[in-house]
Amino acid sequence: MDIEVLGALAVRERGISITPTAPKPRQVLALLALHADRVVPVSSLIDELWGAAPPRSARTTLQTYVLQLRELISAALQAAPPQPDTDGAARRTAKDVLVTMPSGYLLAAGGGSNDVRTFERLAGTGYRAMDAGDYTAAARQLREALGLWTGTALADVQAGAQLEMEIRRLEENRLCALDQRIEADLKLGRHRELLAELTVLVNRYRTHESLHGQFMLALYRSGRRGEALEVYQRLRATLVRDLGLEPSAELQRLQRSILMAHPETTALAPGATGRRLVTAT
Question: Where are the transmembrane segments (predicted)?
Fold first, then answer.
């Protein structure tokens, strides 16, 4: 089974889509796919679909959605050419793929690709390369990880409480990888190449201190000292106005070092993520 959630939802069994078009079954599949090969409790599925006020028929309706998903799975299994089974077991059925467990349901992926797990593996390799000072490998691995994203996670799924929480978690993981990839590029002297990207990012993440610090450093290294200081002033104004906070001591040191034309000594430390409190929508 191939699972994609880092953008539009796409789940394929043996190359054939099993992604429903109806919103509620789509939510169920999205939550199961995010937790592939792990049990998702019935209570979590009900919370995702109806929140704090589920109807009396919630369990029965959920079973209907599961049946609809199994019909799609069954159609995909029947349409796909048979695959040799190395252990001599019978061919999988829809109930083997979407399994009823005592406390909930489990989507048995049975191998295949999973973009979230691939992202986490590549990002982890990139972080270890950063720690080892191999910035070329770190930039390459993190760029490959970020390339798996085709948009907002589950962009075409109506999200309830459970999916919203998972989407926020995935977005935070993406931001961590992005932060470190930019840090690696700065270490490699790619400051001019980063300017356009960072211009967009600081406008989207208006209080993300690490991104602003990286933008300041890239501008300074590109001979644009005045603009680097303007970035700091805009960030400070936003933090004070929206959150009642001053920039971190680390960012203040970077601003002072740019004023003195010696930013290399007090640049944001590798891996520093700064404040991530508000994003522009």
Answer: none
Q: By C-alpha distance, which of 254, 184, 172 is closest to 208?
A: 172
Find out whether 145 and 119 touch, Cβ atoms under 8 Å: yes
Nearest CA-CA partner of 91 in 82, 81, 100:
82
Neighbouring-strand partners of residue 134: none
What's the pLDDT score for residue 265? 43
Strands (E) in the chain, as ranges, are: 2-4, 10-13, 16-17, 39-41, 98-100, 104-107
Where do the domains of the chain lie, and which CATH numbers do they carry? Answer: 2-107 (1.10.10.10), 191-281 (1.25.40.10)
Q: Are 49 and 163 in contact (CB under 8 A)?
A: no
Alpha-carbon radius of gyration of the chain: 23
pTM of the model: 0.86
Give tens-digit pLDDT for 38-74: 999 999 999 999 998 999 999 999 999 999 999 999 9
Strand partners, 41: 104
Residue 264 is classified by DSSP as G
